[in-house]
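ok so i was messing around last nite and threw this chain in just to see what happens. nothing serious, just curious
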Amino acid sequence: MTTSRVPRSLPDGIRDGAAIARLEQENEQLWHAVDSHATVDQAMGVLM
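result:
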């Protein structure tokens, strides 16, 4: 899995502004979930 947050070029066929905005929002939500998961794992380690 790559951890780079560097913007990449869009895949062929993705040119619609609404689709791009939706994908960017989904990407941010996924990064937030990954960060949150790491925090929860650390907290569980402290409690156990």
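not much to say yet. DSSP finds one helix and no strands in the chain.
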